[in-house]
Amino acid sequence: MPQTLTWRMEQEQPCTLEQFLRIEKNVSRRLLTKLKRTNGLWCNGTPIRSIDLVRFGDVIELRLPEVPSVVANAVRSVPICFETADFVVYHKPPDLPVHPTFLYESLWNLVCLIFLAVWVKAGKRRYDGQCILIYFFWYGIGRAWIEGLRTDSLYIGSTGIRVSQALSMALALISFILLVVNARRQHKPEELYVNRVAASAAASESPAEETESNKEE
């Protein structure tokens, strides 16, 4: 059974339907966009647009799309109990399996950390910033994949594009380009910051050792 939410316009000052729903009833922008696509906005028994004016005494109806309680051999939809501009409360069935996305992301980053630690210890780093570029590339790919498993993502308007996926893919792409550009350049080992610090420390110790040797003589 599709769910219908009904309110009566009680304020005397006319306003658009979107203003009434967003300000007075805390309907989220995401739900409002979904209702626009499914023709779920009604006023006094007739369809209405979100930009149309509503007046005192009008009966506003939100006809939510029907969500099947059980879907065999398919992705099950989780009904929304309550939704505001800041958070969403889902009614998750106890037998519905979910992806532990935080665990996936932690393991993904741990693998990257182990790889970078072994890689740096083996002396493979060629220039300053290479490690962070590799991490950004690795993280961007993993976050773009893991974000596709989430059910509470933030979308870019009504495009169906997830904000986190778009940013992650952009991060991975920019990092990959910088890695390729730097791979084609010549980098001297002595230009690395750690090598410059080690060389400076060695140079400062040498005069001190020579002074002590002269005193002993």
Structure description:
This protein is of the alpha+beta class. It is 47% helix and 12% strand. Strands 1-6-3-4 form a four-stranded antiparallel sheet, with no helix packed on it. A hairpin with a 2-residue loop joins strand 3 (41-43) and strand 4 (46-47). Residues 69-74 have low confidence and may be disordered.
Features:
12% strand, two-stranded antiparallel ribbon, 6 helices, 217 residues
Strand order of the largest sheet: 1-6-3-4
How many extended strands?
Answer: 8
Average pLDDT, to the nearest integer? 83
Relative helix content: 40-55%
Q: What proportion of the residues form beta strands (DSSP E)?
A: 5-15%
Let me know the largest β-sheet: 4 strands, antiparallel
Count of DSSP helices?
6
Counting helices, strands and paired strands, the structural category is: alpha+beta
Radius of gyration: 29 Å
Order of helix and strand elements from N to C terminus: EEHHEEEEEEHHHH
- Which spans have pLDDT < 50 for at least 5 consecutive residues? 69-74
CA(first)-CA(last) distance: 99 Å
Shape: elongated
